[in-house]
Amino acid sequence: MKLLKPSFYILFLTILIASCKAKKAVVTTVDNKKVYKSQIDSFLDIAKQMQPTLLVDSAGTPIPADFIGTVNFNLRKPNYVIIHHTAQDSLAQTVKTFSLTRTQVSAHYVVGRDGKVVHMLNDYLRSWHAGVSKWGNVTDMNSCSIGIEIDNNGLQPFTDPQIKSLLLLLAYLKKTYNIPTANFIGHSDIAPGRKTDPSKYFPWKTLAERGFGFWSDDVLELAPEDFDYVTALRLIGYDTKNVNAAVQAFKLHFVQMDTTPQLTQLDLNVLFNVYKKY
Ligand SMILES: [Zn+2]
């Protein structure tokens, strides 16, 4: 048998590896579509169920029940937008993370550094982005919110194209679902002490100028001597179980210059100004 030149084997091996990689990428996409569709089908099955809730009284006697469908209803809709940064290095990496079942995390949208927006879940469905969180008395943020991941590692400013795309996306969401101005918040706001995204580089002021969330006024009144800052934080929505963590979360969003748990006079003035908007 005539032996082929070593360069041929290298070429052959390269083609083989390349084709395996390409094949794997295609298979992953097809699998994702299949899993996405079968999960949608299973939720449709739940929505189609027409059975009354079965109740029993304290003696164990069943309460008579029936199911008679009303004709006046539609889908529940999101009422909050929660903004994150991915803490990953690329859009592709984030999309992959959200496409693997073992990670158990997802978001509705991912916004790339070049401004590209990837929509990963229908807005009416519940994505897994908030985790253990609380805002006001809402303890299941995933059920009432849209999660947006901004591709950023947390150490750099966000890019102009991605903020431009984000603003367009927020305008669409606000209009489509009639989301209140106050309800555009960050992951760090709803999970103080646990999450610090989006980072201090996130342009909350720019968002507030367009009607997405609030920001302090340019001229600040002096906070009163007896200002109850804990109640103010709570009225905004912060979970004040750990006051220091709530202060830090507030400062990350509304002050951004320092995120220590101490409240300076300026911080207090900002808080006094902001809480009155809620
Ligand atoms: Zn997050």
Précis, in short:
This protein is of the alpha/beta class and 278 residues long. The chain contains nine helices and five strands, in the order αβαββαβαβααααα.
Highlighted features:
278 residues, alpha/beta, 5 strands, globular, binds zinc ion
- N-C termini distance: 83 Å
Query: Which regions contain 5 or more consecutive residues with pLDDT less than 50?
Result: 8-27
Compute the average pLDDT.
Answer: 91
Total helical segments = 9
Beta-strand content estimate:
5-15%
Q: What is the overall silhouette?
A: globular
The main β sheet shows up as: 5 strands, mixed
Secondary structure: helix percent: 40-55%
Q: Helix and strand string, N-terminal first?
A: HEHEEHEHEHHHHH
Bound molecules: zinc ion
Total strands: the figure is: 5
Topology (SSEs and partners):
Elements: H1 6-48, E1 80-85, H2 91-97, E2 109-111, E3 117-119, H3 141-144, E4 145-150, H4 160-177, E5 184-186, H5 187-190, H6 204-209, H7 229-236, H8 243-254, H9 265-275
Parallel strand pairs: 1-4, 1-5, 2-4
Antiparallel strand pairs: 2-3
Helix pairs in contact: 7-9
The chain binds zinc ion.
The site of zinc ion has 4 residues, from loops.
